[in-house]
Amino acid sequence: MDQLACALAPHLADGDAVLLSGDMGAGKTHFVKALLVALGYEGPVTSPTFNLMQVYDAPALTVLHFDLYRLESADQLDDIGFYEATDAATPGAACIEWADSFPDDMPDDALRIRITVEGEGRHVQATSSGPRSEKLLAQWAAS
Ligand SMILES: Nc1ncnc2c1ncn2[C@@H]1O[C@H](COP(=O)(O)OP(=O)(O)OP(=O)(O)O)[C@@H](O)[C@H]1O
Ligand SMILES: [Mg+2]
Asked: Phi and psi of 94, rounded to 5°?
């Protein structure tokens, strides 16, 4: 997982969206932490389960980390600044945990990462849904 995150980090850019899905404890937050470490962020990284969004100004890139687990309805996405933060024109890359809970409200062009627990290990499946995420996925796969 750390190696995968390390390989993805240098390709991430402003406006990218990464949607993370997988069961509780699958490693979504773990993956975001590893990404931030790879981007040179040295502070603590916590799960934004309670505050729903956390902003990390890593030296290489700003990362907007969302956890939608506790969000009750899609109406609240606007209240937490989700649409503005995930607009491709907004600086920073968005990493969104529990994106599957609100599939209709996610950015159209996003890298989707599904993590499944397999014994002691993890299985990671990634798909793209537009030109931007397709390029990101290709760069990730090639590294
Ligand atoms: N290969 C691995 N990859 C990721 N996490 C692992 C791995 N092996 C063990 N773990 C452990 O599994 C746990 C994953 O927890 P994490 O908080 O990242 O899950 P999550 O998917 O974000 O869950 P939640 O839905 O509750 O937010 C951590 O305690 C981590 O240390
Ligand atoms: Mg988490």
From this structure: -100, 135
Q: What is the mean pLDDT of the chain?
A: 95
Res 30: pLDDT: 96
Give dist(CA 52, CA 75) in Å, integer.
14
Q: Is 48 in the pocket of ligand 1 (CB under 6 A)?
A: no
**Is residue 49's pLDDT more than 90?**
no
Q: How many separate domains does the chain show? A: 1
Instruction: Domain of residue 15: give its range.
Output: 2-142
What's the CA-to-centroid distance between 10 and ligand 2, angstroms?
A: 22
Average pLDDT over residues 32-54: 91
Asked whether 25 lines ligand 1 (CB < 6 A), one says: yes
Sign of CA dihedral 25, 33, 5, 120: negative
Tokens 């937050």 -> residue: 29
Which CATH number fits the domain that encloses residue 120? 3.40.50.300
pLDDT at 50: 76
